[in-house]
From TrEMBL:
It holds the Pfam family HTH_19. SMART domains: HTH_XRE (SM00530). InterPro entries: Cro/C1-type_HTH (IPR001387), Lambda_DNA-bd_dom_sf (IPR010982). Keywords: DNA-binding. It comes from Flavobacterium buctense. It comes from the Bacteria. Residues 7-62 form the HTH cro/C1-type domain. This is Helix-turn-helix transcriptional regulator.
């Protein structure tokens, strides 16, 4: 199953509109629409990290070939899925990806702090 379809199902399970989820993720509604319809397959790690964190699922959720679509009384991270082993990645690679995401998250926070300081300095000069 395609990543976009899985994102759409998670969104619909939470009863969110595309506009609501796109705002949460910090992307445009049209970008989310293109991702969900698999027109745009360029989902970067930072966006995937935001999606995984919001829906409380791991990256492996999107790597698995099949997924149980019975969400009635289940949290998405409890959904049991079946893999064929083909898409399994070594733990070391997943660890490296997680490290990169944490590093990027830390750098994003630093950037936001520096931008706030710049704004503060600009306002104090006025």
């Amino acid at each position: 199953m395609e990543i976009g379809i899985k994102i759409k199902r998670l969104r619909e399970h939470k009863r969110l509109s595309q506009m609501e989820l796109s705002t949460i993720l910090g992307i445009s509604q049209s970008k989310l629409c293109h991702i969900e319809s698999n027109v745009d397959k360029s989902v970067d790690f930072i966006l995937m990290h935001k999606i995984c964190r919001f829906f409380e699922v791991g990256f492996d959720y999107f790597l698995e070939e099949k997924i149980n679509t019975d969400f009635q009384n289940k949290n998405p991270k409890e959904v049991i899925s079946v893999t064929n082993g083909y898409h399994s990645f070594p733990e070391s690679l997943i660890g490296q990806i997680n490290s990169l995401i944490l590093d990027n998250t830390f750098k994003e926070k630093q950037i936001q702090e520096l931008l706030a300081k710049i704004t503060e300095l600009q306002n104090s000069k006025k």
